Amino acid sequence: MGSYRKGAIAIGAAALLAVSAVAPTAAQDADHLQRIMDKGIIVMSTDPLYPPQSFLDDAGEIVGFDLDVGAAIADKLGVQFVPTPTPWDVVASGRWADRMDFSVGSMTITPERQEKIDFTRPYRFDAAGVALREGVEADSLEGLNVCVGTATTYFQWLDGTLTLTEELGAFVTDPPENVNIVTRDTDRICADEWASGRADTDAWVTSTETIRQAVEEGLPVVPLGDPVFGEPLAVAFDNSVEDNDALVARVDEIVGELRDEGVLTELSMKWYDQDLTTPAE
């Protein structure tokens, strides 16, 4: 568990297309879980630009915490694991058009998303933090150009529309006023632009772990203040797939098994040097 080459993903996707073309009548009679079991393949969306959750290492392999969790789920199901790079806004929008079966992509459970996404119990808990571009002097976000990933809870927090469920271990602070929100396709691009010399944004809101990773890599990122909200992250499924229930229920059970067996904690320690399987504070 742990690394997946880009070429291997392409080959795996081709194999998936070939298998899916076999015995269409039998496939139509099975629910989503059974179709996966019959094919022997499960396809997971991933964002290879979101370290340490999922990213390309120096050897060009996709690695990260979310990749390892997805592989552990596939192993429990007894099927081949095929991660496929997918834009975050596509995953968050639902209606995946059968392009993938599930997402282990650090997706936050929100009431808005539950209208189009089915979730398991949380497999990790995260805290959102703020960072400044090196050289920017400020003690708040007021009046700044703030960079965030599109269709993220970080964007929703800034524009005042974020709703989280406290019963799932979440908390939310009041958003800042008078900020200019600047979106990018994925969170990490904000810091990478600063590293390339761009200076058209001043601040960044993302996972505290993503900020920590950027600092460790020597990017021009300066953490600011305490976490601004805490969020539960879960495995996600497209709820427009009408026969998803058995798949969602089985993966939810597997997440519980991985927690009880200590696998989630072990993977968290591997990638974060701390146990993030309990609610953030």
Properties at a glance:
nine-stranded mixed β-sheet; 29% strand; globular; 281 residues; four-stranded antiparallel β-sheet; alpha/beta; 13 strands
Low-confidence stretches: 6-16, 18-26
Q: Please work out how many helical segments DSSP would assign.
A: 10
* Assembly of the depicted chains: single chain
Overall pLDDT level: 90
- Give the overall form: globular
Describe the structure.
By secondary structure, the protein is α/β, with parallel strands linked by helices. About 35% of the residues lie in helices and about 30% in strands. It is built from 10 helices and 13 strands. The strands form 2 sheets. Strands 2, 6, 7, 8, 9, 10, 11, 12 and 13 form a 9-stranded mixed β-sheet that branches. A hairpin with a 4-residue loop joins strand 4 and strand 5 (about 60-65). Residues about 5-15 and about 20-25 have low confidence and may be disordered.
Outline of the structure:
The protein is α/β, with parallel strands linked by helices and 281 residues long. It is built from 10 helices and 13 strands. Strands 2, 6, 7, 8, 9, 10, 11, 12 and 13 form a 9-stranded mixed sheet that branches. Strands 1-5-4-3 form a 4-stranded antiparallel sheet.
